[in-house]
Amino acid sequence: MSVPSWQDTSYGGRVRVARWLVEVVGEGNPFTKVALREAFPGVAQIDRRMRDLREAGWVIYTNREDPSLNSNEHRYVAEGEPVWLPGRGKAKEKTSLTAAQRSETIKADSYLCRSCGVGAGERFDDGRGTAQLDIARREVKLASGDTEKQLVTECNRCRVGNRGSTADLTELLRCVDALGPVERKVLAQWMDADQRTYSVLEKLWGKYRTLPADARAAVKQAVSGEGQ
After folding, report:
1. CA-CA distance, 78 to 200, in Å (whole number)?
2. How many Å from the N-terminal Cα to the C-terminal Cα in the chain?
3. Would you list the DSSP string of 89-124?
4. What is the mean pLDDT of residues 106-116?
5. Bridge partners for 153 per DSSP
6. Long-range pairs, 217-223, Cβ under 8 A, ≥24
7. What is the pLDDT of residues 172-187, one digit of tens each?
8. Which helix (H) or strand (E) holds 216?
9. Which pLDDT belongs to residue 226?
10. How far is CA 115 from CA 118, 136, 224, in A?
11. Four-residue CA torsion sign, 155, 160, 166, 172
């Protein structure tokens, strides 16, 4: 079977949008809602036909997954099932979360992104936009050797960065077993408080390590007392 053109009106809206993304937009490129509608004048609910492609494995980002986009833009990231072939591209089993699951997960995660610690509506450290929290499915390697997907709260930025990552619980537990009594007590206190306070030295180190080489040299000289 030949691959249809996105302009072939004998096909439905979902197939035509899929081909339009491949032929016109191109993988990795952004497109606007206006451009989509202009490409398919008179086609009802063309926005929904585009969203339906996600159920067939097509990856299309909004500004929730890609903060560089504005509210009227999407990014075509990756091709999914060839929905133009008979029997292909059927909707996958629904995996949406219930409102109760979302609420329970966010509450258990202290209403914070578990990767960077930002709260909903807070501005990011670089000042570019505010955080939106959502629920991600993180693959976790268990001590038994099996893997399972567990729910975790992440902000819109961290969800993109952590996509496809696996948390190795086995390795983490091995590191915990290697801790001494004092270290275990400190770690337990951080876990009970669900936060960690940093010392002045740790904060200085964090700022120092981000500096360019010349600036690091100046700080290093000041710390060593050279030139005094």
Report:
1. 45
2. 80
3. SPPPPP-PPPHHHHHHHHHHTTTB-TTT-PBTTPBP
4. 90
5. 135
6. none
7. 888 999 999 999 998 9
8. helix 213-224
9. 63
10. 8, 11, 35
11. negative
